[in-house]
Amino acid sequence: MFHWLEKNPFFFSVGVFVVIAFAGLIEILPNFAEASRPVVGVKPYTVLELAGKNVYKKDACYECHSQLIRPFKSETDRYGQVSLSGEYAYDRPFLWGSKRTGPDLHRVGNYRTTDWHENHMWDPKSVVPQTVMPAYKHMFTNLADVDTAYAEALTVKNVFNTPYDAPNGIKLGTLDEGRAAALEDAKAIAANMKNKDVKDAVARGEIPEIVAIIAYLNRLK
Amino acid sequence: MNGLMIKGLLFAAVLIGATIYVVNSMKIDLSDPINLITMIGAVAIAVLTVGVSIKYINQMKTDKATGELADENWDGIGEYKNELPGGWAFSFLGTMIWAVWYFLAGYPLNAYSQIGEYNEEVLAYNAKFESVHKNADAATLQSMGESIFLVQCAPCHGETGDGLTGKAHDFTKRFSKEQVLHAIVNGSDQLKYAMGAMPGGMAQGADAEAIAEYVAGGMKGEQPASFGVCAGCHGADGKGNGGTAPNLVEYDDALVHQVVENGKKGSIGAMPAFKGRLTPVQEKALATYLSTIKG
Amino acid sequence: MQSNAALEYDYSVAKLFTYTTILFGFLGMLIGTLIAAQLAWPELNYLIGEYGTFSRLRPMHTQIVIFGFTLSGVFATFYYVGQRVMKVSMAESPFLMFMGKLHFWLYFVGALAAVITLELGMTQSKEYAAFEWPIDVVIVLVWVIWGISVFGLIGIRREKSLYISMWYYIATFLGIAMLYLFNNMSIPTYFASGGIGSIFHSVSMYSGTNDALVQWWYGHNAVAFGFTVPIVAMVYYFLPKESGQAVYSYKLSLLSFWGLMFVYLWAGSHHLMWSTVPDWMQTMGSIFSIVLILPSWGSAINMLLTMKGEWNQLTENPLIKFMVLASTFYMLSTLEGPIQAIRSVNAIAHFTDWIPGHVHDGVLGWVVFMIMAGLFHMAPRMFKREIYSKKLMEAQFWLQTTAVVLYFTSMWIAGITQGMMWRAVDEYGNLMYSFIDTVAVLHPYYAIRALSGVLYLVGFLMFAYNMIKTMTSSRVLTEEPQFRSPMA
Ligand code: HEM
Ligand code: HEM
Ligand SMILES: [Ca+2]
Ligand SMILES: [Ca+2]
Ligand SMILES: [Cu+2]
Predict the structure, then answer these.
(1) What H or E segment, with its residue span, contains residue C203?
(2) Which residues of C touch B92 (CB under 8 A)?
């Protein structure tokens, strides 16, 4: 039979395809049937947080940081409670990472604060002298892309029924409302920061990347 | 055994030896099952790869290619109709049978829960260390506290507890003058002491300055008269009236407990709350350790 | 049987892809060496501002070596091997010639756009699938065109029965086609929101744990169909061809092929051990990884046995050395991987440097060695000149072998140590090490790895130099060599 297949490329290819496609179905379908359901209390990202998440992706923090606390006592002691599937319900894409050159960040919002992040992102060595993490000074001047974050929120609301604008939920509203809400959130964060340029920018109505990423990091709880 | 095989296995042995040496120098407990299985796995990788590949490479020296050639020929490449190598065929069959057994009989679907295993791990840990914790004396608490501090607190407060030149609270002394002034001006309502909140603005101008200087100086020397307003709550000695208000002189158990549970935001910045992340023994250990950091 | 001499194979497309293999190989490994050095000496992060940080460059490294270097190598060898084992020339079909050239140029333009957009930070942030949707569209097009080439050539073949290498090239085509499409499913936010924000941005069709499952079903098999299957295609052609030996066993070829096809796809969840995917699925990934050892080793053993009795070729011909060592590095990574997939071992190995260690004994020792050997073998036949320097090739071999050994041994020790330090507790049951302790301890190993990168890169430059000299100024051959490649 195999000799025959080797002389008939069409059936050979069909054979290969069936053999490789098969496993995918069994691996992936059952979990999709389960769908990722949010655990109680998990809210979708605000526009500012999404903008921060996009900075996190743009500067590829996930190449060094995981967001997955595994069920070992050593990990829960270090990072907090074990990660649950439903906590990632609004993560598109997931950002678990596959390498911990730096520590896990899934709950970093619990044990680091705005002013610490400000110092750390400006110059990691000033807080952790032996670190290998690069400084991200450019985030203090680059502006976050709030419009794209809003577009993303609107997309997931419309396409995946992500519960924005639901009662007691996060309000998304129109683009202008989205921008205004992001600026309000940014002001609250800038109030706890020291960098003069950042404070001035926010006062002018601009949102530097650093403010967005801190909003995102603070939200990781 | 021939030279190539000996060299190969020697390489494997050196690699494993170096790994064990480095791991040991980090005081790793290799009897921990996970660590042990990992080391065994590493040995298996090194020895099997070297052993099997060199076995076949040696055949390049000793054997001759033989067999019945197939009719086909592709761009000059022929093909023998040789049987499968026995060891390979046997192992393949073996792993397949093992896999089926594992799934159906050995550890069938849903027989295992990683969260269940985690819960057991935590219980086992707690049981194992309970006795150490129950009888912890000051020296034990001190060294326990130091190691917790280095893991949980040093990223902000620095390894020596000096606050990294003003980025967090400096434990080499009790307070800086700004911190005390900040409390006097703004009051404080976050630590959840029995006394409740401290109102702001109870002293002004030169009085406030004098108090702040006095408290930041470790409450030594002559007490400014204006400190009386503080003494009402913090006690004349500043020690916090038996834990109902913060101790302004030392890092006592109550203070560390309240700060760690509730976090604190002051003139320097914000400290997160560690509620639920530290046990009472660990808090006590931290307090013991903090009280010993001296500039 | 028709003689080869009667047929003039057309290597123009193979040559074009040979050039990009060299170009992207150099670029990818240069960046690899730089990021390796950045972890040892973080000051190196600031050479080109925000565009030069470790995190911006690391995805560039992986995407360039995979989609630039490795894929170019796969295409180059396919356009060479495919014609020969099927006994047809591209020149026979103007349509296929056109498709081949279109394949190359679309690929090249796409690759440049991919490099630029990644450097600007436009990314879907999925490992090995980082490109944003417009680049994905180009990749899909390139793939379709390659498919037309593959099946077009098959359609006009003279050799009725497909040689083993063709099995693997076909599988590469089908595998990547299926995987890439599913994993890159995303919705461009610009269009979905009625024209707000960046046109490049998109959001994944899947979320959270589901997304992770699709990603690693893809990621694991991208390794399978990018770093394994087409490279096996190469070794099955180039080793017997260069040595003049017949393949040891058809049965072994057969079982290894179908075994690999069947088993590989099940193992993806070994990237998700101890995560929030269901326990049974993790167990499945672990079990199938162990079974996977045998079909993987089958091909390697088949190749080693093909060289039975040919010790003198091994010692005299550096090309044979490359390929035999590649086969053993393939054995190393396909045993190391399964062992890292065991639950308990993965508890240590995952997230540590042991994984990049495993990755690079596969890619440096197997993928790059095999691609270079293939191109070396092709060069005298494509350019009708003798290989420029055997001495240089010999030196390159030892230099790069040293480099791979330094890379994997340093990361092996680093990873195991780091993984165990994360778990370590002191006598009171508290964590023994702060995270930064586990970073600081790695410095010497990071430095060794950076050194290994420099050595490997120099080796690759020797390869590039040797190739360019072969193309341009080496002794002209009057006749095509049958087996062993002539070298000065
Ligand atoms: C039998 C075959 C193999 C098995 C079972 C296997 C298994 C594994 C495992 C368990 C991991 C680590 C996952 C984690 O904990 O993060 C891994 C990672 C990896 N392996 Fe393999 N491996 C195999 C062969 C190979 C080969 C031959 C190559 C390349 C030539 C390769 C390339 C990779 C890459 C690139 C990663 C990193 C994935 C990431 O980004 O996390 N593997 N493999
Ligand atoms: C000069 C040679 C090379 C050096 C010095 C080098 C260095 C590196 C470094 C430092 C990393 C990041 C590891 C980390 O984040 O801890 C990496 C990742 C990676 N490299 Fe290379 N690399 C080289 C060549 C290659 C080649 C030729 C390939 C593929 C053909 C390759 C494929 C990869 C892959 C797939 C990863 C991601 C691994 C993961 O996520 O686990 N590298 N490399
Ligand atoms: Ca990775
Ligand atoms: Ca993509
Ligand atoms: Cu894998």
Answers:
(1) strand C202-204
(2) 255, 259, 294-295, 298
C29, C453 contact by CB (below 8 A): yes
Q: Which residues contact B122 (CB under 8 A, 6 or more apart)?
A: A73, A76
B44/C contact by beta carbon, under 8 A: yes
The SS3 of residue B29 is coil
HSE of C84, CA atoms in CB hemisphere, 13 A? 23
Strands B270-271 and C186-188, by their bridges, are unpaired
Q: What is the ipTM of this complex?
A: 0.94
Closest by Cα among C153, C125, C128, C31 to C71: C128
Which residues line ligand 1 at a C-beta cut-off of 6 Å? A 98; C 127, 219, 223, 227-228, 267, 270-271, 289, 292-293, 296, 333-334, 337-338, 340-341, 346, 349-350, 355, 358-359, 362-363, 366-367
pLDDT digits (tens, 9 = 90+) for A27-86: 777 667 666 678 878 899 999 999 999 999 999 999 999 999 999 999 999 999 999 999
Domain boundaries, chain C: 361-488
CA distances from C87 to A46, A188, C17 (A): 61, 71, 21
**pLDDT class for B270, splitting at 50, 70, 90?**
very high
Residue B230 has φ and ψ, to the nearest 5°, of -80, -40
Average pLDDT of adjacent 10-residue blocks, chain C of 488 residues: 66 98 98 98 95 96 97 98 96 96 98 95 94 96 97 96 97 94 94 95 94 93 93 98 97 97 93 93 93 97 96 96 98 98 97 98 97 98 97 98 98 98 94 96 98 98 98 94 94
Spell out which residues line ligand 2, taking CB within 6 angstroms. A 98-99, 101; C 28-29, 32-33, 35-36, 58, 61-62, 65, 69-70, 127, 353, 355-356, 359-360, 363-364, 367-368, 453, 456-457
